[in-house]
Amino acid sequence: MKAFQGIFPTVVLLLSIAATLKGQKTDINGQLAGWITGSNSDRTYLQAGVRFVPQVTFSYPVLKKYKIDGEFSADGYSNYTLQSDSGGVYDGKLRIYRAWVRFSANRFELRAGLQKINFGSASILRPLMWFDRVDPRDPLKLTSGVTGLQARYYFRNNANIWGWLLAGNKNTKGWETIPSDAYRPEFGGRVQLPFPRGELAFSYHNREARYPDGSYALSSGKGYFNENRFGFDTKADLGIGLWLEGTITHRNDLYNPSDNYEKALTLGADYNIGIGQGLDVMFENMFVNVSGSFSGKGNSLTMSGLSLTLPVSIITRANVIVFYDWKDKGWYNFADVSFTFNKISINLIAFDNPRSFSLLNFSAGQNLFAGYGGQVMLVYNF
Q: In sequence order, what are the residues at sequence separation of 6 or more whose Cβ sits closer than 8 angstroms to the Cβ of residue 143?
């Protein structure tokens, strides 16, 4: 329970912040989740865990035309895992989850601090997953944030522009495998333009990546490189929803020159079929190519994803997500039946994945969703 020894001081701190915001709209809420997971891959695993995410949000009007609001939250978890061929393993951690303040007007906002930044038209196979790691199969939809400044301006015709400046982010984010240099700011922006029945957008990001201390690349004097990302996405409602999302990434990595160009493209569609209360069908196909030159063959990967969502009743919802890796010929199967009440939800989850789990696996430890198994999760929102 060491990870939770710091939770209570954190809650006291959040409550103290709320108490000082007199005359403002202040909300104290959060989420408490507990789960039991069983899986079988290279060995059998059984895990019991709990996660607590307390949150304070506030909003304060300034001179009638402006507003200052923000969010402060923590994320603490603790779990105990039994392995069939050894004893149990404890894991726990406490971290700041969100800590940002925003100044906004009618068509402008500036947000500073630890925040979530995500965008794009794709939902389950996302080339533009640059700053977050939201797994579409996760009932809690939790993801680490990034520290920095983000500004947005909204035009009267619903067009909008974004700009961001990030610093101090030592860990990898999105699809990154090499972390950024925490002392060299990252920067970028995005333009979204509406058109009849849809919108299109262009995005850009620049960073300097640095290999971790002790790596051969760093000791050989080739431990950092500049990276430019270019993104494009569009979405249209033509009776059937259609979208396209693509990225081109260029690196000047002298240590791995064969990976200097990365191209990714996702084509997606969705449609609601009149079965029961409406069966929502969504399909996405993503192609990725990594090579040493823009037109080089290099290494390619193709993934397909299908999501089926059916509201069975007011409180019951069923969701099935299936991925197929065309290169390794691997199936990733996930099914979730959720029951949502006033403040409590219950998720019954089943999965059957390859033993060597690679899709959206950013965890350094054992992945309990490799192989086959199930999970029961109880969530309390307050």
A: 116, 132, 133, 134
**Whether 305 contacts 322, CB under 8 Å:** yes
pLDDT tens digits along 306-344? 999 999 999 999 999 999 999 999 999 999 999 999 999
Report how far residue 324's alpha carbon sits from residue 331's, in angstroms, rounded to the nearest whole number: 5
What is the pLDDT averaged over residues 247-256?
Answer: 93
Q: Which residues pair with 273 in a beta bridge?
A: 279
Q: Nearest to residue 201, comparing CAs of 151, 165, 235?
A: 235
Q: Which two tokens stand for residue 111?
A: 């947000």
Amino acid identity at 265: L
Q: What is the pTM of this model?
A: 0.89
Q: How buried is 10 (Cβ within 10 angstroms: 0-12 exposed, 13-18 middle, 19+ buried)?
A: buried
pLDDT confidence bin for 4, thresholds 50/70/90:
very low
- Residue from 364, 304, 293, 298 nearest 328 by CA: 304
Is the pLDDT confidence value at 374 over 70? Answer: yes
Give the residue from 207, 286, 295, 199 showing the smallest Cα distance to 252.
Answer: 207
Tokens 């430019």 belong to: 228
- Separation CA 189–CA 203 (nearest Å): 6
For 258, phi and psi rounded to 5 degrees? -75, -10
DSSP 172-226: --TT-SS-B-TTS-EEEEEEEEEETTEEEEEEEEEEEEEPPTT-HHHHTT--EEE
Specify the pLDDT at position 85.
Answer: 80
Does an H or E element contain 108, and which? strand 108-115
Q: Report the distance separating Cα 153 and Cα 198, nearest Å.
A: 19
Quick one: tokens of 193?
Answer: 């333009």
Q: To the nearest whole number, what is the mean pLDDT of the chain?
A: 91
* Beta-carbon contacts of residue 361 (< 8 Å; ≥ 6 apart): 367
Please state the domain extents for the chain. Answer: 107-269
198 vs 268: CA distance, rounded Å: 14
